[in-house]
Amino acid sequence: MKNAITKFGVQAQFLKVQAIEKTKAFLKEEKSAKQNTEEGWLVYASIVIGIIVLSLSLPFLRDTFTDIMNFFDDGVNGRNTNPNGWGGGTNP
User: Fold this and answer.
1) Which of 30, 33, 54, 80 has the smallest number of CB atoms closer than 10 Å to its CB?
2) Contacts of 71 by beta carbon, 8 Å cutoff, 6+ apart
3) Dist. CA 75–CA 69, nearest whole Å
4) Residues of the domain holding 14
5) How far is CA 18 from CA 10, 41, 42, 80, in A?
6) Residue 83 in domain
7) Which residues contact 50 (CB under 8 A, 6 or more apart)?
8) pLDDT tens digits along 39-76
9) Each residue of 6-30: pLDDT tens digit?
């Protein structure tokens, strides 16, 4: 039993050393560093593009949000400001 535990401990130590060596090799590998840098730039570029698109579309969205909120407010207060055919209007 003692030999089995010792053998298991030696195998675990060997696997630990292998994992550390693989991790070091990955971090030192030029390909992995280049890929991570490119992905980092893509994230920053996506954020910048998103901010630009949002700033360009915000004036148009503001009217849309107001219309939607007025629609819900009318429903809560019982006012019917919808045109015919848009729910609540008279059907022909």
Assistant:
1) 30
2) 82
3) 10
4) 2-73
5) 12, 32, 33, 72
6) no
7) none
8) 677 788 889 999 999 888 888 777 777 878 887 887 77
9) 877 788 888 888 888 888 887 777 6
